[in-house]
Amino acid sequence: MPYIICGATEIDLELMLSKLYSKLNMTHVMLGGGGILNWSFVSAGLCDEVNFVIAPAIDGTTDSTPVFNGAFSKNHQPIGFKLKSIEVYEKNTILVKYLVDKKIYKKMHLFRLVATNYV
Q1: Given phi > 0 = left and psi -120 to 50 = alpha, else beta, which region is 92?
Q2: Distance from the CA of 13 to the CA of which of 38, 40, 96, 107 falls in 20 to 30 A?
Q3: With contact defined as beta carbons under 8 Å apart, do 115 and 38 qualify?
């Protein structure tokens, strides 16, 4: 896999997606990171869909990672979602899919990004 340089001091997410498309012909990317990565893409208007997997269990930990974390972001505006679908799987596990509301965020038509989180 070749290296992709996308910014001198910070990662330019839009440039990165553009290069993934132009150099590797990638049109879909799944975010598999934590709250900071998720917030970075969603708040930049670069994520089309957010999925939550809900399992019928809790663990009670106090140091759980938030699904969205804007700790390193200057943008803390609320971002709306629109329900796309709900799917029920075996053992009462639920997959909830939301579309990110793009009315107030810039659009990027090259990618359909999906952030999947396990709640």
Answers
A1: left
A2: 96
A3: yes
Residue matched to tokens 């993934």 = 20
Name the 3-class secondary structure at 101. Answer: coil
Cβ–Cβ under 8 Å, residues 106 and 45? yes
Is the separation of the CB atoms in 87 and 4 below 8 Å?
A: no
What is the CA 16 to chain-centroid distance, rounded? 15
- Could you tell me which of 77, 69, 72, 74 has the C-alpha nearest to residue 115? 69
Cα 66 to Cα 88: distance, rounded to the nearest angstrom: 23
Is residue 100 within 8 Å of residue 81, measured between CB atoms?
yes
Give the full edge-to-edge strand order of the sheet including 81-88.
28-31, 112-118, 49-54, 94-100, 81-88
Average pLDDT value for residue range 7-21:
91
What integer pLDDT is reported at residue 110 of this predicted model? 45
H-helix or E-strand containing 26? none
Q: Averaged over 45-65, what is the pLDDT?
A: 88
Fill in the amino acid letter for 106. Answer: K
